[in-house]
Design brief:
The complex is a heterodimer of chains A (316) and B (215).
Chain A: H1 13-17, H2 26-29, E1 33-37, E2 47-51, E3 54-60, E4 66-70, E5 92-96, E6 99-103, E7 123-132, H3 136-144, H4 149-152, E8 169-173, E9 176-186, E10 197-207, E11 210-215, E12 225-235, E13 238-247, H5 254-273, E14 280-281, H6 294-306, E15 312-313
Parallel strand pairs in A: 14-15
Antiparallel strand pairs in A: 1-6, 2-3, 3-4, 5-6, 7-13, 8-9, 9-10, 10-11, 11-12, 12-13
Chain B: E1 2-6, H1 11-22, E2 27-31, H2 43-46, E3 56-59, E4 62-65, H3 67-78, H4 90-119, H5 125-148, H6 162-172, H7 185-194
Parallel strand pairs in B: 1-2
Antiparallel strand pairs in B: 1-3, 3-4
Helix pairs in contact in B: 1-3, 1-6, 4-5, 4-6, 5-7, 6-7
Classes of the chains: A alpha+beta (316), B alpha+beta (215).
């Protein structure tokens, strides 16, 4: 791989993203956030970004160590070599699901697990990391929604006239939202699917700004594909979303898998960016829900109960 | 069959797909992992295009790079009516060429802003946004006068040209780069008209035309 055009800069992010208010929600500050797919980082080179309106430097050292730090503590221009020596004021980092995760907290909440990724014959890739002009909760909510499939992803994840969202179950279990029993008729559920099928879905929201779905229709009928949306909140109304894809498919190339998922992602993006207000209203009367929105209603209530005010419009 | 080395979210690749769809030309896509794989920068891809960019078109062994050059080639070869690239009308051809060059400017500003905002490419966002607004103001005024004299397309012709194709995605996807189209009503009207061309196709971020007819 050549690195010459690798994005290393937070140029464009800082002026537009930082409005000086910052995030004060402990529940949000205490989470882990993905900054980049590790394989996409050039070892030894510093990168810059913005997390919750805080400028952050990060990278992988030549020894393969992941590091992240607050740029107001240590300034290393983007694209410059990372220092060989460890420096102080580092942020906590970890490698999970192929991404470099960091937290602004010294004692973050443990990152959720995805046990399926331990299966040896599964492939996990970062589909892409894309900037989106919306709040993290709007993006999570869009990911949870099945009602838009036949309209926004016509011919792929749905098709008219099969627009009904059948009833499904939502519960909060072990501190995360689980929606089960979701079914949707899909013309092309996965890159490897041949013909239309009724796809089974399970959704998980294990983190205020991360959401996972498990779906059938992949290469192996007995196991579910896992698709995740892991969000780096830049500010309240601006995010970088990484789409994670883990599947049992030993035929499709990474390029083919990415093209399929990125095509879907790109159809959602303009819808999300045109939703007004950009912050998710938590009041149950702010936006009229229908039966299909059960998971969204649960998500909004869950954010309220967690005390999240960042990226939302609080109920009271 | 024609092969197009393509990335779904590239405006330049879309320009080629759009014209081939309109001209009803069969082609197959060779997907290139432009992002996040940066495969167009690989040594392997260098054999296809030594300049390491997409799109590249391979028509039975004839290989041509650069979207606007590909549009010229496709229109000249596959549009027997000679309207998309009007080689028999020197004035109109000159006008088409001049707007194709203008489209290089919109690609380097509006679409660069989109690459910065969406994919984190290292462009000076404010500068490319300003550059795009400057070009859009000029273009919008031009289209306003075109509308007033009954013209529907970028060049002074009854039929659209490849200049319309070259400009269309830069304009219609500009909002992804934080460039609002609210002040460019003539561009929005023209973009809606483009969406009604027979053979029109969408890409991620571009919606089909609304149901009501416009003139």
């Amino acid at each position: 791989m050549s690195w010459s055009t690798m994005p290393v800069s937070r140029r464009g992010l800082v002026d537009t993203a930082i409005n000086g208010e910052g995030c004060t929600d402990q529940v949000i500050l205490n989470q882990w956030y993905p900054l980049a797919a590790i394989v996409e980082l050039r070892p030894g080179i510093s990168y810059q970004t913005v997390l919750l309106e805080v400028e952050v430097g990060f990278g992988v050292t030549l020894n393969g160590e992941l590091i992240a730090w607050r740029l107001d503590c240590v300034v290393i221009p983007a694209g410059n070599p990372l220092p060989a020596e460890n420096f102080t004021d580092k942020l906590l980092v970890q490698s999970a699901y192929g991404y470099l995760w960091t937290s602004l907290s010294a004692e973050p909440k443990e990152l959720f697990s995805i046990p399926e990724t331990n299966e040896p014959d599964r492939r996990s890739i970062n589909v892409a990391t894309i900037g989106i002009a919306t709040s993290a909760p709007r993006a999570v909510e869009n990911f949870l929604d099945m009602g838009h499939f036949p309209f926004v992803h016509a011919g792929v994840l749905g098709a008219e006239p099969h627009t009904e969202v059948f009833d499904y179950n939502v519960e909060i279990k072990d501190g995360e939202i689980i929606a089960t029993g979701c079914k949707f008729p899909q013309p092309q559920a996965a890159p490897s699917s041949v013909g239309a099928i009724v796809t089974d879905y399970i959704y998980r929201v294990p983190h205020p700004y991360c959401v996972l779905l498990y779906k059938s229709g992949g290469f192996d009928e007995s196991r579910l594909d896992v698709i995740g949306l892991f969000i780096q909140p830049i500010s309240q109304e601006r995010i970088r979303a990484s789409m994670f894809y883990s599947c049992v498919d030993n035929i499709s190339s990474d390029t083919a898998l990415r093209r399929f998922q990125l095509g879907i992602f790109s159809q959602d993006k303009p819808i999300l960016e045109n939703q007004v207000p950009k912050r998710l209203p938590l009041s149950t009367t702010a936006e009229t829900p229908i039966r299909a929105d059960k998971s969204s209603i649960t998500y909004r209530r869950w954010l309220s109960d967690l005390g999240v005010t960042y990226g939302v419009i609080s109920a009271n | 069959m024609i092969k197009l080395y393509d990335f779904e979210l590239s405006v330049n690749c879309y320009k080629c797909r759009l014209l081939m769809s309109i001209l009803n030309v069969d082609y197959e896509i060779v997907p290139v992992d432009f992002y996040p794989g940066f495969k167009h920068k690989s040594d392997e891809f260098k054999k296809i295009n030594p300049l390491n960019h997409i799109p590249v078109l391979d028509d039975g062994g004839y290989v041509i790079r650069d979207a606007h050059a590909i549009l010229v080639y496709l229109a000249t070869k596959y549009d027997s009516t000679k309207r998309w690239y009007p080689i028999e009308n020197p004035e109109l051809l000159g006008e088409t060429a001049s707007w194709m060059l203008f489209a290089e400017g919109t690609t380097n500003t509006a679409s660069a802003a989109r690459l910065n905002v969406n994919l984190g490419y290292d462009f000076d966002l404010e500068k490319v946004q300003e550059g795009a607004h400057k070009l859009f103001r000029f273009f919008d005024e031009h289209m306003w006068f075109r509308n007033r004299s009954g013209g529907k397309w970028v060049c002074d012709s009854e039929h659209p040209t490849i200049a319309d194709i070259a400009l269309f995605p830069d304009v219609v996807l500009a909002e992804e780069g934080g460039i609002s189209l609210i002040d460019y009503p003539a561009l929005r009207l023209w973009a809606e008209r483009m969406k009604r061309l027979p053979g029109f196709i969408v890409m991620g971020g571009i919606f089909p035309a609304s149901a009501d007819r416009i003139n």
